[in-house]
Amino acid sequence: MARDLKQTLELGDGPGTRINKPVKGVRVRPRRSHAVEITAGPMPAKRVSLDRDRITIGRAQGTGLQLDSEEVSRNHASLTRLDDEYTIEDLESRNGVYLNGLKVHAAVLRDGDELQLGDVFLLYHEGG
User: Fold this and answer.
1) Residues 6+ positions from 51 with CB-CB distance below 8 Å
2) Is 39 in contact with 32 (CB distance < 8 Å)?
3) In whole angstroms, what is the distance from residue 9 CA to residue 19 CA?
4) Residue 28 has pLDDT above 70, yes or no
5) DSSP calls for 27-68
6) Residue 98 CB: number of other CB atoms within 10 A?
7) Alpha-carbon gap, residue 97 to 90, rounded angstroms
8) How far apart are CA 81 and CA 88, in angstroms?
9) Residue 28 and residue 79: Cα distance in Å, rounded?
10) pTM check: above 0.90
């Protein structure tokens, strides 16, 4: 299976084991920067750079993006990066995840998308 600029090799030594290697003769694009900006809620506004392939969002200590709100579950949602896209997934939170006003279980994010987790609003930025 080929995906974007990489070939993926599935190995039989465990679930989800993949090796990505560059395809000969294809120039690799640098990864664009992604961020979320806290725009409303019980905490001050701030911009957080997304610099890992998987980030957990929640109220618990040790989450990649800790949101200090009683309406946010301890492990509320996760952001997963595949190639140059992030997907948000609800981790069976109490109040759910809303993307542009619609409740979702999982969705690919686009620049300018508004996320709501409990009473916290986040604005997603890609490539800038």
Assistant:
1) none
2) no
3) 5
4) no
5) PPPPPPPEEEEEEESSS--EEEEE-SSEEEEESSTT-SEE--
6) 16
7) 6
8) 9
9) 23
10) no
